[in-house]
Amino acid sequence: MSANPVSLPLAISDEDFRKFREFFYRKTGILFEDSKRYFVDKRLLERMEATQSDSFRAYFTMVRFQAAGTELQTLINAMTVNETYFFREEYQFTCLVNSMLAEIVARRGDSKRPIRIWSVPSSSGEEPYGIAIYLLEHWPQIDQVDIEILSSDIDTSILTAAREGHFSARSVQHLPANLLAKYFRRRGDHYQIVDSLREVVEFTRANVTDPADMRLHRDFDVIFCRNLLIYFDDLSRKQTAESFYDALNPGGFICLGHSESMSRISSLFRVRKFPEAIVYQKPWGAR
């Protein structure tokens, strides 16, 4: 008579971690350093339990070969960090209103095409909605020039949350009280942005390291891509910068996070030092 097999605790070995890290990097461009091991292990084990996988090998096989790709997307959602707040690095919004838009409007002459702004990653919507609020409050030409705001993320669950427009007290803590009252409605312990603003921003899924996704996103005048490239390695940063270059109209601007520098990634862009901020520009006349 044999004993019943004993179930061992699920675990991620060093080799498992290296395999997963390489796979995830190829799929997303995001490279997890060894210092992120605890974060990665925790989320992998959560997904293994949720899918009732009895080993890393079984789970990893499902992620790689599942035809629908739903578990891969769920895993991407779990691995991506989505923490931000309204009016983060507000000085770039000031630069947008006072400097970048003024130059774009002056160069475009009497063109009636809309000015297109792309916020990526969208996270839960604080940045694209924040841009809309800032333009409404501070840009005198808002009633004369059409503006389109598109926001994208690789995380489909966070895109759903962004479309619904619910925010915690922490997310709105830096908003002036008058803007909070004007553009939000209190819903229990959180705030929901008003419907008129929810209709202003279009949300799409995009993986900025996937050329096919990036080819669908074109003709932007300003791109906000803040605090994303820090998660990539040098090769992915360079490829993404080149994709952003292709996505911008000539003379278009890209804004990075305060700790990021396009000069260290690509020579395609011109450094522009405005009174409010340093941003990067696709040269006028470039294709």
Automatic annotation (TrEMBL):
Query: Which SMART domains does the protein's record reference?
Result: MeTrc
Q: Which residues form the CheR-type methyltransferase domain?
A: 5-274
An MF annotation (GO) of this entry: protein-glutamate O-methyltransferase activity
Cite the entry's keywords alphabetically.
Methyltransferase, S-adenosyl-L-methionine, Transferase
Secreted among keywords: no
PROSITE patterns reported for this sequence: CHER (PS50123)
Name the reaction it catalyses. Answer: L-glutamyl-[protein] + S-adenosyl-L-methionine = [protein]-L-glutamate 5-O-methyl ester + S-adenosyl-L-homocysteine
The entry's function note states:
Methylation of the membrane-bound methyl-accepting chemotaxis proteins (MCP) to form gamma-glutamyl methyl ester residues in MCP.
Q: What is this protein called?
A: Chemotaxis protein methyltransferase
